[in-house]
Each structure stands twice: as structure tokens, then as C-alpha cells.
Design goal:
It is a single chain. Helices cover 7% and strands 25% of the residues. The chain is elongated. It contains three helices and 26 strands. Strand 2 and strand 3 form a beta hairpin.
């Protein structure tokens, strides 16, 4: 029998284009064999009997394959704790792999009793905005919510011990996440390209953060990495920008080139400063006051910072870099100190609202 390790290794080298097919193959080949079609339907939800003796069922999809009727679920539904069929009451204990893949659901509530959410259970549910996960859930499978780019909020209950590879990959509307104390490891690519994620709470139980776990989380500018963390994988925070003075576990900062984050000395109202030079800015910076001690505004420091409306530049600044304020379309006025001796090409190019300088 081909080992699970082989398929998990192959998974890491599988392109995004082939991921849908890979999930199906993985579910079929490394998980226990189950009935290919649903056993019964109650109130629009399909079920498979997992144990006739224990009277347990799992939520599943309609038909032989998960993509045969992938538009079967829509609107809002509640998965009950128990369901009755032919006079027998069954406990609902799990959501099968791919059960809701590519569905049109907007919201879903899962009642108590469910303990696991399978591989790709909500894969590609692009309309899903909210989901309620009960306390009893202990595992969330690989790719469980990948591509749910309308999902704005999710609460992971205490008791979850496993969050699979790429579980929330591409959830670009997700803004915050709190990892429960029961989790010890952040798997690879769990929050890959969650571009609006601004807040992450990691518990003291975490010991490792996998490769590309927060890759492309460009809005994540502060994270408390607990002292319990002993390893951070390659590109774990690629595309994230952290100001060193906002960084909590400074002991891991020396390895930032390995895990992909860019570190700055200080942050002032969204302006990022390193060695007394303004080198970048947050895209949402609006009013910036630079402190005494700043000597230069670097090349492209406020490049296309369209939200910037005003900036105070201290007397010690002597140079404005090339395209420093390029397309700062909301900037209305700016006062340059007497000590400025150099202004780079295109420093104020297309600052369409600038009335004085």
C-alpha cells in the first residue's frame, strides 16, 4: 500500500491548478473507504452512516463524487447535533472531506457533536461569509477553507489540536484569528495569502510555525511570537513588514532573512524607519509625523501611498529620494525644511492634490 507520507510529500510539490484533483485523489486513496453515495437526506443535508452500531453519521455531498452536484448547498444551513432517519436517531459526528466544496452557502452553523472537519470540506466556497464551529471539534483538515475569500471571521474553539496544511489559504477577507491553547504547531501555508489579516494571536503552547504559514499576509504588521516557539519555517512571514519596536519575541528576529519578513527599527504613523531613513510606509497611512532624528526620506518611501493626506518633516531631513511621494494623490500640502539639499527625480510625480510645497 502506498504510504500517506508519499502523498503528503507530493502535496508540497503540487501546483495550485492541480490542487482540486489532488484533494479528491488524496481523499480517495489515503482515507478509509466509504460509501460512494449518500445514504439519506434530511432537510436538504446529505448524510452517510459511519456506524450502524453506534448510530453515527457524517455530513457528505450528493452523488458519487463531490463535484457531481457541487452547487447542491446554498443560502444558510445549520448542521444538527442529531438527525432521525427511518425511526433511528443518529449523532452527527463529522463533516466528510469535500462535503461542501464549491458550494454557494453564505453561512453555516455546526451544532455540537461534530469532532472533525475533513479535507477540503469547504474548499472554494467563495460566498461563505461566516461559520460557527462548536467546541467539540478537534481537527480541521487540509484545505478545509481554502478559497473561502468572503470569509471575514472565524472562531476556533478550545480543543482544536490540528489545523491542516493550507486550511485557510486564500481567505483574503479574514481579518483576525486567535489560535487556541490546544494547538502546538502552525502547519505550512495555513494562512497563505490571507492579505487582509491584521491580527494573529498565538498561544504559549505553540512550538513551531511552518513554512509559508503567513506568506503574503501583507496587512499583518504585528505579531506576538511566544518564547515557546523554537522553529520558524522558510518564508513563514514572507511579505509581512514588522517594526522591531512592535515585535515581541525579539530573540527570533536574527533569522528574519530565513523566514521572509522585513524588519524595521521604528514605525511612525505608518512610516517605516530604518537607520534614521524612511524606507517604506503602510498603505493605509493618512497623517504622518516624522520625529527628530530622521535624516532622509528614501527612494519610493511613500510610493503610491494614496491615503496619505499630510506629513510633517523634521528640520534634520536633508534629502528626498527618487519617486519618494510618487502618486500620493491625496497629499494636499507639504513643507520641506530649510536643510533639504537634494530632491530626487519624480519625487512628487502625479501628486494631483498637492497645492503647495
Amino acid at each position: 500500500m502506498v504510504s500517506r507520507l508519499f502523498y503528503l510529500t507530493q502535496l508540497k510539490h503540487t501546483s495550485n491548478m492541480n490542487k482540486k484533483s489532488f484533494i479528491l485523489c488524496l481523499a480517495m486513496m489515503i482515507l478509509p473507504l466509504q460509501a460512494s453515495a449518500e445514504d439519506f437526506i434530511v432537510n436538504g443535508i446529505y448524510y452517510n452512516i459511519t456506524s450502524s452500531a453506534d448510530h453515527t453519521v457524517e455530513v457528505t455531498y450528493k452523488g458519487d463524487y463531490y463535484d457531481s452536484y457541487y452547487d447542491e448547498y446554498s443560502g444558510s444551513i445549520t448542521i444538527p447535533a442529531t438527525v432521525t432517519h427511518n425511526g433511528t436517531q443518529y449523532s452527527v459526528t463529522s463533516i466528510r472531506q469535500n462535503a461542501f466544496a464549491y458550494c454557494s452557502l453564505a453561512s453555516i452553523a455546526i451544532s455540537g457533536g461534530v469532532t472533525s472537519i475533513g479535507i477540503g470540506a469547504f474548499y472554494g466556497c467563495s460566498s461563505l461569509t461566516s461559520i460557527t464551529i462548536p467546541e467539540g471539534v478537534t481537527s480541521i483538515g487540509m484545505f478545509a477553507f481554502e478559497g473561502c475569500y468572503s470569509l471575514t471571521d472565524i472562531t476556533l474553539p478550545e480543543g482544536v489540536t490540528s489545523i491542516g496544511y493550507g486550511a485557510f489559504e486564500g481567505c483574503s477577507s479574514l481579518t483576525s484569528i486567535t489560535i487556541p491553547e490546544s494547538v502546538t504547531n502552525i502547519e505550512e501555508k495555513v494562512f497563505y495569502e490571507c492579505s487582509n489579516l491584521t491580527s494573529v494571536t498565538l498561544p504559549e503552547s505553540i512550538t513551531s510555525i511552518g513554512s509559508s504559514a503567513f506568506y503574503g499576509c501583507s496587512s499583518l504588521n504585528r505579531v506576538s511570537i511566544p518564547e515557546s516557539v523554537t522553529s520558524i519555517g522558510s518564508n513563514a512571514f514572507y511579505g509581512c513588514m514588522f517594526a522591531f519596536d512592535n515585535f515581541v519575541n525579539k530573540s527570533v528576529c536574527n533569522d528574519n532573512n530565513h523566514w521572509g519578513a522585513t524588519l524595521f527599527d521604528k514605525e511612525y504613523d505608518g512610516a517605516l524607519v530604518k537607520d534614521n531613513v524612511v524606507v517604506d510606509c503602510r498603505s493605509n497611512a493618512t497623517v504622518v509625523t516624522l520625529p527628530e532624528g530622521v535624516t532622509n526620506i528614501g527612494n519610493e518611501a511613500f510610493y503610491k501611498c494614496s491615503s496619505l493626506t499630510a506629513i510633517t518633516i523634521p528640520e534634520g531631513v536633508t534629502s528626498i529620494g527618487k519617486e519618494a511621494f510618487y502618486q500620493c494623490s491625496s497629499l494636499t500640502d507639504i513643507t520641506l525644511p530649510e536643510g533639504v539639499t537634494s530632491i530626487g527625480d519624480g519625487a512628487f510625480y502625479e501628486c494631483s492634490s498637492l497645492t503647495s510645497i
